[in-house]
Amino acid sequence: MLEINNLHASVVDIDDSEILKGIDLKVNKGEVHAIMGPNGSGKSTLANVLMGRPDYEVTDGDVTFNGDSIIELAPDQRAHLGMFLAFQYPAEIPGVRPWQFLKAALDSKAEARGEEKMSVRNFSKLFDEKVEAVGINPTLVKRSLNEGFSGGEKKRNEMLQLEVLQPALAILDETDSGLDVDALRIVAEGVNSMRSPERSFIVVTHYQRLLNYIEPDVVHILVKGKIVKTGGPELALEVEKDGYKTYLDAAAAGANA
C-alpha cells in the first residue's frame, strides 16, 4: 500500500535543516505499524511529509501509495486517494460544525473521484449513526469544530472523522500526547474497530502505553531522522523498559565516526 524509499526531507527555506535522512519503510494492506522515538527524532515530520505539508521539502527519495508516487501531490489530493492524518493537537475551526466539515470532505472526495455526492438526508443519517458509534456527546457536534473540546473529546471527534471518511491509510501523529487512560481507550477502540484487511495504520508515539491497547504488527525505532531498528510488538516493550539511550548513543557514535 505505502512504500517509502530513501526519503530525505528538510524544512522549507532553511539551510542545513534536514530532518529525515533516508527513511525506508513499507506498509502492506491490513497492517498496523508503530513508529517510536525520542523527542526531535523526526516522527511528526515523517507524518506531515507523508500528507504533503508544505512546510517541508522532500530533497531525495520517493513515496508511493498503491503503486503511484505521491511526492508531487497536494494534501487534498492525497486525502482523495484515501490517506488521513490525525493531528497531535487538532485545530479549532470557529464557525464550522463537524457536520459541515465532514459533509464538505466527503463531497470533495466524491468530486475528485467522479462519484455522485451523498444527499444531505443520507449523510445526516450516516453522521448520526457514527456519532452514536464513537460515543461522542451529541451536544458537542453542535459546536464549532473542536472549539472548547477537551483532549478526549477532540480524540472522539477524530475517531468520528475516521468512521465517516473511511480512509485506506490512517496516520496517527502522537495522538496519545497528554491523554489520560480513558482518552487512550477512545483512540484505541476507534482504531481497533476499523482494523480490516484493506485498511492500514501508522501510529506515531513516544510511549509504549498506547500500544497496550493497539497491538501493532510492526514497530520501528526512529532516531535522528533514520529508522535504526524494526521488530514486532516486543520491541515496544523493550523500549518501555530500557528507553532510547542505546539508540541515541549508537547514532551519536555513528555521526562522530
TrEMBL record:
<keyword id="KW-0547">Nucleotide-binding</keyword>
<dbReference type="GO" id="GO:0016887">
    <property type="term" value="F:ATP hydrolysis activity"/>
</dbReference>
<dbReference type="InterPro" id="IPR003593">
    <property type="entry name" value="AAA+_ATPase"/>
</dbReference>
<dbReference type="InterPro" id="IPR003439">
    <property type="entry name" value="ABC_transporter-like_ATP-bd"/>
</dbReference>
<dbReference type="InterPro" id="IPR027417">
    <property type="entry name" value="P-loop_NTPase"/>
</dbReference>
<keyword id="KW-0067">ATP-binding</keyword>
<comment type="similarity">
    <text>Belongs to the ABC transporter superfamily. Ycf16 family.</text>
</comment>
<feature type="domain" description="AAA+ ATPase">
    <location>
        <begin position="29"/>
        <end position="226"/>
    </location>
</feature>
<dbReference type="Pfam" id="PF00005">
    <property type="entry name" value="ABC_tran"/>
</dbReference>
<dbReference type="GO" id="GO:0005524">
    <property type="term" value="F:ATP binding"/>
</dbReference>
<protein>
    <submittedName>
        <fullName>Fe-S cluster assembly ATPase SufC</fullName>
    </submittedName>
</protein>
<dbReference type="InterPro" id="IPR010230">
    <property type="entry name" value="FeS-cluster_ATPase_SufC"/>
</dbReference>
